[in-house]
C-alpha cells in the first residue's frame, strides 16, 4: 500500500454514462476539485513543495500495469489487492468488481475510473477501509472501540461485508454499543418531545382566528413567551395548591359548621371557575380536537373540573327527590347518593397532578416511570411472589398456635407485605421459633428486593431531570436573546422615526 500523489481526472473514460456531476466544471476547477469531502486529508499548499513534487513526478518512470492486482483508490489513498484474494468473496462490492467482465457494470460499482492508472475510485472513508482491506487479506473483520457504530455499519454495508465475519467477542461488544447508542438516541428524542408542546405557533397560520388562537396558545402553553404567560402559569399552580388545602380543611371538624362550609364552597367555586376557563382556553387554542383529547395533561384538567359540576348535578337531583318523595326507602337512596358524592369529591385530589404541567421534577419522574416500566413491573412481580410464598410458610408454621392471627393465608398477606417493605408495624407477630425464622427470611428478602431497583431508578431520574433542565434553560436563553433583539429593533426604529420627524436631525 502506498500514498498516491496528485490524482487527476481522466478525459473521457472516467465519466459514467448518464453522470453529469463533473460536466459543468472548467479545467481549472477540475484541477483543484477534491473528490472526497474530508478536509483533514488535504495538505496545505506550498509553492516550493509543489515544485519539488513536480520534479519528482517528472523523474518517475511511467506506471506499469499489473493484471493480477486490483488498484482501489479510496478517498485519495491507494490500495492494491490481488484479484484472486478479492474473488473469494464474490458477494462483496470488490468481489463483484474483480469478477465482472462488462466495463459498464464495473463503472456502476465505483464512483470513478482512471484508464491511465487502472484505478477504481471510491468516495468513501479511507480510515475505515483499512479494516476492509485487512478483512480481504486475513478473512477476519476487526472492530475498534473508538469507531462510531452507525458509521461503521454504513460503510460495511456499502462494501457488502457482513458483521458475521468479525470475531464473536468483538461482535458482541459492538452490538451492545450499537444498542446503547440507539437507546440513547431514542430517549433523547422522547425527552425533546416531552418538552415540546402538543401544538406549535406555526400551525395556526391560515386558520380561523389564527392570530387570536396563537395569542391564547402562547399565554397558556408557552410560559416563556411573555410576562403574562408566566403569571398565568404561576396562578395555575397557586390555584391547585389552594384547592388542595381547601379540600383538606373541609374535613376538619371545626370547619364543618355553617360559616366554614359556606367559605369552603365559595373557595371551591372560584377554583373550579379558574380551572374551567383554563381548560376552555386550551381547547380553543388547540389546532386538533382529536389530539387535544388524547393528551394526558388535558385529561387531568378535565378530571380536575368534572367533580364540581357532577356534585352540582347530584345536589339538584337530590333536592328534586326531596320535594316529591318522603318515604323511608327514598331516604335510603339519599344516603347512597351521599356516598357517591363523597367519592366524587375525593376525585378532586387528582388536581395535584396539574402541577406536573409546570414542574420539571414531576415530569422527569413520570418519564422515568414510563422508561423503567419493565423494571417496575418486575419489582411488583417479585413482591407478589414474596408475599404469597412467605404468607404460606408463616401460616403453615403458626396456624396451630392458640390465639394466632395467622388463621389463613389471606390473613397472612398483610403481615408479609409489611415485612417485605421493612416497615414492620408490629400488629401481627409470630410466636414460634420457626415463625421467627420465616419472618427473618421475609425481612432479608425485602431488604435485597428494595435495594435492587433504587439505584437504577435514581440514576435514570437524575439523568432525565438534568437533561430536561438543560433543555429548558436552552429554550429560555434563546427566547431571551430573541426578546433583546426585538427590543433593539424597536429602539432603533423609534430613534429613526424621531430623527426623521425632528428638523434639526435633517440638517
Would you give an account of this structure?
With 507 residues, this protein is mainly alpha-helical. The protein contains 19 helices and five strands. A five-stranded mixed sheet has the order 1-3-2-5-4. Helix 9 (210-221) crosses helix 11 (258-285) and helix 15 (360-371) crosses helix 18. The protein is flat, with a radius of gyration of 38 Å. 16% of the residues are buried.
Summarize the structure.
The chain has 507 residues and is mainly α. The chain is 65% helix and 4% strand. Helix 9 crosses helix 10, helix 10 runs antiparallel to helix 11 and helix 11 crosses helix 13.
Question: What would the keywords be for this entry?
Answer:
507 residues, mainly alpha, five-stranded mixed beta sheet, 19 helices, 4% strand, flat
Tell me the number of helical segments per DSSP (H or I, 4 or more residues long).
Answer: 19
C-alpha end-to-end distance: 76 Å
Low-confidence stretches: 1-24, 27-49, 57-64, 322-332
The topology string of helices and strands comes to EHHEEHHHEEHHHHHHHHHHHHHH
Widest beta sheet: strand line-up? 1-3-2-5-4
Strand content: under 5%
* Record field, number of beta strands: 5
The percentage helix is: 55-70%
The Cα radius of gyration reads 38 Å
Structural class: mainly alpha
- Sheet having the most strands: 5 strands, mixed
Shape: flat
Amino acid at each position: 500500500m502506498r500514498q498516491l500523489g496528485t490524482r487527476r481526472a481522466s478525459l473521457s473514460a472516467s465519466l459514467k454514462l448518464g453522470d453529469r456531476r463533473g460536466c459543468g466544471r472548467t479545467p481549472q476547477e477540475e484541477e483543484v476539485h477534491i473528490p472526497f469531502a474530508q478536509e483533514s486529508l488535504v495538505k496545505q499548499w506550498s509553492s516550493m513543495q509543489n515544485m519539488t513534487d513536480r520534479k519528482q513526478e517528472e523523474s518517475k518512470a511511467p506506471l506499469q500495469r499489473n493484471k493480477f492486482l486490483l488498484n482501489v483508490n479510496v478517498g485519495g489513498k491507494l490500495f492494491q489487492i490481488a484479484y484472486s484474494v478479492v474473488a473469494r468473496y464474490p458477494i462483496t462490492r470488490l468481489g463483484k468488481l474483480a469478477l465482472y467482465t462488462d466495463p459498464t457494470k464495473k463503472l456502476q460499482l465505483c464512483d470513478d475510473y482512471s484508464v491511465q492508472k487502472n484505478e477504481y475510485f471510491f468516495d468513501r472513508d479511507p480510515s475505515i477501509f483499512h479494516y476492509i482491506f485487512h478483512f480481504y487479506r486475513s478473512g477476519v473483520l476487526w472492530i475498534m472501540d473508538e469507531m462510531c457504530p452507525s458509521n461503521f455499519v454504513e460503510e460495511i454495508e456499502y462494501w457488502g461485508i457482513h458483521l458475521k465475519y468479525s470475531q464473536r467477542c468483538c461482535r458482541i461488544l459492538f452490538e451492545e454499543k450499537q444498542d446503547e447508542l440507539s437507546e440513547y438516541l431514542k430517549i433523547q428524542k422522547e425527552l425533546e418531545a416531552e418538552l415540546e408542546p402538543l401544538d406549535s405557533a406555526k400551525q395556526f397560520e391560515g386558520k380561523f382566528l389564527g392570530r387570536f388562537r396563537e395569542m391564547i396558545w402562547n399565554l397558556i402553553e408557552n410560559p416563556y413567551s411573555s410576562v403574562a404567560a408566566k403569571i398565568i402559569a404561576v396562578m395555575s399552580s397557586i390555584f391547585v395548591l389552594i384547592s388542595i388545602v381547601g379540600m383538606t380543611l373541609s374535613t376538619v371538624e371545626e370547619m364543618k359548621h355553617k360559616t366554614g362550609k359556606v367559605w369552603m364552597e365559595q373557595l371551591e367555586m372560584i377554583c373550579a371557575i379558574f380551572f374551567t376557563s383554563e381548560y376552555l382556553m386550551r381547547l380553543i387554542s388547540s389546532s386538533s380536537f382529536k389530539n387535544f383529547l388524547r393528551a394526558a395533561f388535558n385529561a387531568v384538567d378535565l378530571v380536575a373540573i368534572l367533580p364540581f359540576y357532577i356534585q352540582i348535578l347530584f345536589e339538584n337531583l337530590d333536592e328534586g327527590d326531596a320535594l316529591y318523595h318522603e318515604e323511608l326507602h327514598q331516604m335510603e337512596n339519599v344516603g347512597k347518593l351521599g356516598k357517591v358524592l363523597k367519592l366524587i369529591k375525593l376525585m378532586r385530589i387528582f388536581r395535584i397532578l396539574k402541577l406536573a404541567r409546570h414542574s420539571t421534577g414531576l415530569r422527569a419522574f413520570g418519564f422515568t416511570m414510563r422508561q423503567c416500566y419493565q423494571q417496575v413491573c418486575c419489582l411488583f412481580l417479585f413482591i407478589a411472589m414474596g408475599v404469597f410464598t412467605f404468607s404460606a410458610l408463616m401460616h403453615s408454621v403458626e396456624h396451630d398456635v392458640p390465639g394466632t392471627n395467622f388463621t389463613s393465608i389471606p390473613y397472612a398477606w398483610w403481615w408479609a407485605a409489611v415485612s417485605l417493605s421493612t416497615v414492620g408495624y408490629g400488629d401481627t407477630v409470630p410466636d414460634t421459633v420457626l415463625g421467627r425464622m420465616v419472618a427473618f427470611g421475609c425481612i432479608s428478602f425485602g431488604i435485597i428486593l428494595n435495594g435492587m431497583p433504587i439505584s437504577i431508578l435514581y440514576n435514570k431520574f437524575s439523568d432525565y431531570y438534568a437533561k430536561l433542565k438543560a433543555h429548558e434553560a436552552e429554550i429560555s436563553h434563546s427566547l431571551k436573546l430573541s426578546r433583546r433583539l426585538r427590543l433593539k429593533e424597536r429602539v432603533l426604529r423609534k430613534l429613526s422615526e424621531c430623527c426623521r420627524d425632528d428638523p434639526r436631525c435633517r440638517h
